[in-house]
Amino acid sequence: MPAPIRLRELIRTIRTARTQAEEREMIQKECAAIRSSFREEDNTYRCRNVAKLLYMHMLGYPAHFGQLECLKLIASQKFTDKRIGYLGAMLLLDERQDVHLLMTNCIKNDLNHSTQYVQGLALCTLGCMGSSEMCRDLAGEVEKLLKTSNSYLRKKAALCAVHVIRKVPELMEMFLPATKNLLSEKNHGVLHTSVVLLTEMCERSPDMLLHFRKLVPQLVRILKNLIMSGYSPEHDVSGISDPFLQVRILRLLRILGRSDDDSSEAMNDILAQVATNTETSKNVGNAILYETVLTIMDIKSESGLRVLAINILGRFLLNNDKNIRYVALTSLLKTVQTDHNAVQRHRSTIVDCLKDLDVSIKRRAMELSFALVNGNNIRGMMKELLYFLDSCDPEFKADCASGVFLAAEKYAPSKRWHIDTIMRVLTTAGSYVRDDSVPNLIQLITNSVEMHAYTVQRLYKALLDDISQQPLVQVSSWCIGEYGDLLVSGQCEEEEPIQVTEDEVLDVLEGLLVSNLSTPVTRGYSLTAIMKLSTRFSSINRIKKVVSIYGSSIDVELQQRAVEYNALFKKYDHMRPALLERMPIMEKTASNVHTMFFGGYVWYYFFTLNCAFLSLAIPPMTAYSKNGLKIEFTFERANPNPNIAVITIHATNTTEADMTEFVFQAAVPKVSHDLSVTFVLEWPSQSPDLNPIENLWRELKVRVAQQQPQNITALEEICMEEWAKIPATVCENFVKTYRKCLTSVIDNIYRNFWTIKRT
Amino acid sequence: MWTLERNEDTEQQIIRETFHLVSKRDENVCNFLEGGMLIGGSENRLIYRHYATLYFVFCVDSSESELGILDLIQVFVETLDKCFENVCELDLIFHVDKVHNILAEMVMGGMVLETNMNEIIIQVDAQNKMEKSEAGIAGAPARAVSAVKNMNLPEMPRNINIGDISIKVPNLPSFK
């Protein structure tokens, strides 16, 4: 059999492949050759074959059949074999393969080998992929090597010990004696890895932390030597002596000094020294400074030192290097809660970072800006943030808009400013605003009683300009529905009142109903708004006409609303003014109203509550008695508060069969006293309400309706066609929004259901 | 090198995702990225440096200093440069095992082992020497090649016309 080709040959061949298929073919051919070579137990070329296998593994092809071969290589006497064997073990094997346990013995022997490089290989492999069993077996050997005087082995043993501790935390105590004189080493490699080991032990166990606190003076001394030592060619990186070790020590000091006054005090001097003496022209210097700042902020440092740290961060912000600005913003974000005033001083620099080109920097600057907003700087900050909202990328707009709303709610200097700010957000970033902001805004507007006229006027003007941004349109139509009378009568005090007639208003609202840009939710809002205007405007006939047209709308929601409103006009006209009255001021917290929705057969039962009833006793009333179903209401005054009336509903079923899909809905008009209504209703299983499949049915209905089938066979065909055509993304969407649907039902449940109907 | 358990598919997916994230980056943005979904999202970060056509990407968790890792990448690249003599892409492609060996001297088990460039080079050279001494017969061609590389050979003539040559055998004096 000819000698297997060398790795380089293989690489060259693979590089000539022009398509994925060609490459796959070459690889498969070579794999076959390698497999037969393995079967022949060819010792001379095993090393070469495994090297090739590892290369193919790197490209992503399966290479598991080489695992045993790696073991054979490890067991060989030659260094070349061992090297590739261990590399293969690290790349191909891990805990999940049973084969890896076979390595334990080999590694044990190699840990005691005469050549330090073989020992190094064994340590390296154990430290990379040793499983917990292997670590348990070999921890003793590692511990022995940790005490050796060979610095090459000592540093590897230290990192191997870290891995062992991570896998088997109980063995941590075993390494404790060996750590005694780790820090007195001269070799920087050993120092570095020892500090890593100590850091790991301190992070894992509070006892170890206490134990190692006494090392703080020694660490401080080492750090001092590094800074003061002057130029040392072997450890120099861009003019600073072993910055990696400095950074490591600073990190360990941070862990040791956290929440401990004495250690923190011991560190204060050296931290100040590092902070002031480090060269900042290169990245290395800044890396050390950054670590110093993090340490200062974390331990119990004195306030002067903290101010120094924040000023360093402020200087970082002005640095040309974008990496430095990024880390500065990240750390300021962490410290803004604890050292708020110090960070405030750098507010203008932070706000300037909003204009940076880098996306990551902009995001951090935005988060930090929102954290810095307070009652004093709200006006200035908001101006900058709104400007940012105008010009930023779409991925930021949603977060920025939410942040603006939150900040405005907390610190708004005046109601008018608040409403202006909200308007500005809605008009500039209206389509990115989150869904729950619409009800929040509506509540805010309702509660600012004196601003109603101003608000509705501004919203109306915004609608005239642009009807594409749905949240804006929804809030505007709601407002016009509520306060349309103020709009028409030109009562605005805050700014110049506009002249608008009832017809113009109705034109706009009807325009929303027919526009392609409006979503079904928006259409619902505008239909309800039109209905509400029937009590505020005089042109009732027009409104009646609109409502009756939509009684046959394809959109089920619109249709239902229109039918209900029609019923209001026809049968329940005497209730209309009460039902469509102005909304009262809403409480933000949930009142104790529970309602449950369910579908099925719905019928309405309106009953009037006499406002005077509270002063009289009312006898029980049978509200409904038909077909074996009897519903009775009893009224009584509550104890201890006589101003509260308790209405109890008794529903009895006198038939022999079960009654399913029992629906109760109540419309409760506003009375001058608070009315707490408690319903607890059953929700039968398999109810079609809130079942996402209903959305799919509706989708199908809409599509089929568009095709306008003429007869039953055509209907069947078209149904099958259209059903098949519905893409999976539609279904996915229904599933995705289901959770939101449920949470918003639960949120809205406490508001009486008629509140929702009225919006 | 993967220090956590993965299977091959996930490895390739992670590599692909990382490639997508890093290749989209502009020149003048900062060198830090939040990790993609497969690498643990925002707890782990990708820190990369761009040298001509090569990207070196390190994935680290929050226990490493970002600026420090930038320096580490620089040390790694300088070490590669010293070991390969003006390293270029082809060196890295054709000598994958050597790159692994160098990396193994710098990073072990996901932690930084040695940062002193000279120290690393000394160790790597010593181990390479050990390998060469073991190579025996099979290594002869390689040794010959490296020996020839170090020689200064004059330019070989391409065409040697051996037509009718009368080879004159010189009269050698007899040795007594």
Automatic annotation (TrEMBL), chain A:
Q: What is its main location?
A: membrane
- Keywords attached to this entry: Cytoplasmic vesicle, Golgi apparatus, Membrane, Protein transport, Transmembrane, Transmembrane helix, Transport
Gene Ontology terms, MF aspect = nucleic acid binding
Q: Name one GO biological process term.
A: intracellular protein transport
InterPro entries to which the protein is assigned, alphabetical: Adaptor_Complx_Large_Subunit, AP1_complex_gsu, ARM-like, ARM-type_fold, Clathrin/coatomer_adapt-like_N, Clathrin_a/b/g-adaptin_app_Ig, Clathrin_app_Ig-like_sf, GAE_dom
PANTHER family for the chain? ADAPTIN, ALPHA/GAMMA/EPSILON
Q: Please report the name of this protein according to its UniProt entry.
A: AP-1 complex subunit gamma
Q: Which organism is it from?
A: Oncorhynchus kisutch (Coho salmon)
Q: Which gene encodes it?
A: AP1G1
From TrEMBL, chain B:
Q: What PROSITE patterns has UniProt attached to this entry?
A: CLAT_ADAPTOR_S (PS00989)
For this protein, the record's Pfam families field holds: Clat_adaptor_s
The reply on keyword 4Fe-4S is: no
Compartments where found:
Cytoplasmic vesicle membrane; Golgi apparatus
Provide the AP complex mu/sigma subunit domain boundaries: 4-130
GO cellular component assignments: AP-3 adaptor complex; cytoplasmic vesicle membrane; Golgi apparatus
The processes (GO biological process) annotated in the record are: Golgi to vacuole transport; intracellular protein transport
Primary localization class, coarse: membrane
* Functional description taken from the UniProt entry: Part of the AP-3 complex, an adaptor-related complex which is not clathrin-associated. The complex is associated with the Golgi region as well as more peripheral structures. It facilitates the budding of vesicles from the Golgi membrane and may be directly involved in trafficking to lysosomes. In concert with the BLOC-1 complex, AP-3 is required to target cargos into vesicles assembled at cell bodies for delivery into neurites and nerve terminals.
Q: What is this protein called?
A: Adaptor related protein complex 3 subunit sigma 1
Q: What is the lineage of its organism?
A: Eukaryota, Metazoa, Chordata, Craniata, Vertebrata
